[in-house]
User: Which sequence fits this backbone?
């Protein structure tokens, strides 16, 4: 691609946000697009914004930092150099979303610079090297000034060519977002089914009717201090499971050509798998330390108990069936061994409940780093339904997890395609034809 090179500040305005996460009396209520939202998304859409936190901003901040379609947000400062300058494209118009602290808002001159295209350029290794090399600070925190961002050299082809490149990558990103929405829907349906069957106790009775609503007998259980369906058993979890922690590692045993390692960064706060958190391990391990698809694993460590967005201790997930070959886990992860697959899926669903997490969190201790005393988990008491009901639930849950795994694999392929095309388009090895 032959193009002029122009400094970003000549074709866009740049504002560094000062909007914090606090709510103040007299200010306008807004939703914040924060550092993590920018960092983890190729584009910010209306669907993604539904999860934004609520805070307030003054009138001047609302004017300066409201995000609108066509703008770009980038991460401005972080503890590591490679976490700054990460961009996202604002793909929809918003009336109440402002950009949060630790980020900068870039407003392109739309007659010269296409926002989608700028987002592509800022995702290149060329851009990452520029920001890493020019960031100020050392040791504790690195930051980008307005001048550094404005000085970024942008290759500037015709606006028509910019639109073709931007639209290509937006198409890929929309497919990834649609796939993510499928996973969210599957998670929601699984939770709804669990609530309906095992919280409201309206699982199908022998006639296929909802048990409790159809007059199914409920009996008082002294151990749980509540009613449960007749014929259900109350168990101590430790009588049904065994557990072991994963492998200790250090920087010398983490290499790109290693085996996939599930670690604490693999857990989302909603007990789903986070693909971006995966590490690869190159050290020694035994056959008894290998994970299999659909093994149940639990996070046993947490860096902080203050930020709800990082409250992952005690969260459990089923190892996704997306890897070829062996998988291992780190010492921050406990593998839960269950003899009965039906009970495993039931336990997985139980582990996602607020009461299970509240119970488990009571056995976490530490100052800066929390560690989970797994004996507390083993002593957890829970009701279990007859095997037939658990098996029906397990079959439905497994089908849902298998579909999610298909989507995760497809997203990985799409990200790989995007990363493959990115440098080739930018250096002119390939061109985008058509609209």
Assistant:
């Amino acid at each position: 691609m032959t193009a002029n090179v122009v400094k970003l500040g000549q074709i866009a305005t740049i504002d560094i946000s000062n909007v914090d996460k606090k709510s103040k009396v007299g200010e306008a209520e807004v939703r914040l697009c924060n550092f993590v939202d920018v960092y983890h998304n190729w584009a910010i859409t209306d669907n993604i914004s539904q999860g934004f936190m609520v805070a307030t901003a003054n009138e001047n901040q609302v004017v300066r930092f409201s995000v609108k379609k066509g703008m770009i947000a980038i991460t401005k400062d972080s503890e590591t150099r490679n976490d700054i300058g990460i961009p996202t494209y604002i793909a929809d118009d918003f009336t109440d979303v402002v950009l949060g602290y630790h980020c900068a808002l870039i407003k392109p001159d739309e007659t010269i610079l296409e926002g989608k295209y700028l987002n592509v350029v800022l995702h290149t290794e060329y851009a990452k090297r520029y920001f890493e090399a020019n960031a100020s600070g050392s040791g504790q925190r690195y930051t980008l000034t307005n001048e550094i961002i404005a000085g970024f050299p942008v290759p500037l082809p015709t606006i028509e060519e910019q639109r073709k490149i931007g639209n290509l990558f937006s198409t890929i990103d929309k497919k990834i977002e649609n796939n993510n929405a499928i996973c969210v829907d599957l998670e929601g349906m699984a939770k709804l089914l669990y609530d309906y069957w095992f919280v409201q106790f309206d699982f199908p009775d022998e006639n296929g009717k909802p048990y409790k609503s159809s007059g199914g007998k409920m009996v008082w259980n002294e151990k749980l201090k509540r009613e449960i369906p007749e014929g259900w058993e109350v168990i101590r979890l430790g009588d049904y499971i065994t557990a072991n922690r994963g492998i200790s590692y250090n920087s010398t045993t983490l290499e790109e050509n290693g085996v996939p390692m599930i670690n604490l960064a693999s857990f989302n706060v909603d007990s789903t798998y986070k693909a971006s958190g995966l590490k690869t391990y190159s050290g020694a391990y035994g056959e008894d330390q290998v994970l299999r698809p659909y093994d149940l694993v639990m996070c046993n460590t947490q860096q902080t108990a203050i930020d709800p967005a990082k409250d992952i201790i005690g969260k459990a997930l089923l190892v996704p069936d997306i890897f070829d070959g062996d998988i291992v886990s780190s010492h921050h992860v406990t593998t839960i061994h269950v003899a009965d697959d039906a009970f495993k899926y039931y336990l997985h669903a139980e582990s996602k409940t607020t009461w299970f997490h509240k119970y488990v969190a009571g056995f976490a201790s530490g100052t800066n780093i929390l560690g989970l005393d797994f004996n507390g988990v083993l002593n957890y008491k829970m009701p279990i339904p007859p095997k037939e009901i658990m098996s029906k639930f397990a079959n439905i849950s497994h089908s849902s997890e298998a579909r999610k795994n298909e989507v995760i694999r497809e997203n990985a392929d799409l990200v790989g395609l995007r990363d493959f095309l990115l440098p080739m388009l930018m250096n002119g090895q390939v061109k985008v034809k058509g609209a």
About this structure: The mean pLDDT is 91. The chain has twelve helices and 26 strands.
